[in-house]
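seq as requested:
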Amino acid sequence: MLSENKVNIYIDGGNFHHLALKKIGGEELNFDFEAFANFLSETRIIPDMGKRFYVGTVREKAGDGRSKEIMARQTKLFTLLRASGWELKTSKLRLRTEKITIDARVEDFKNILKAGIKEIKMVRIREKGIDVKIATDLIVGALDNKYDTAILVSSDTDLVPAMDWVRKRLNKKIEYIGFSIENNHLKEKTMPSQGMISHSDIQRILVQSDIEKFMHPSLFR
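struct tokens:
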């Protein structure tokens, strides 16, 4: 039986990919986001436009077959999500050059310096403005009374000011979805954000088995 409590679901796609899907060797096209939304909402109502997915868009690079393939797969994902009633919010992925100076903060820095290496430059891909889009939607949704509880699938603490505002000013609840996943092969571990936990009303920490049940190898092949 459905409750009268309304929920909006906000999924930070890049955050979800790196903190959960990547850790278990999954990918978005094999993940059942619709079933995941129903799992998160439980018996609560998801209004129209109450499911939102935020992600940086991939652009094709001339002569780069991999970028063409990734863009095609992302386009397919967007089509499938829209068909299930998801609102998509996108931003451009931007290249940013980062410089690491070799000093005492770097492991084995003395030997690296002896090799004549004083700095390392790396090109990283960054999403631009996803946190701003989520924060804006949290506030606008609260002002328009679109939800009683916002279910936030993101561990980006840049969202804390918006979370605090809707909780304190409009008495809305924030439900934080975090992850506790360890990948022995990658030697990486995802832990829930203590900052998000302390600024939310409800906390649900999902483990690997919680995510795996929504993975279907042939789902959208």
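The mean pLDDT is 86.
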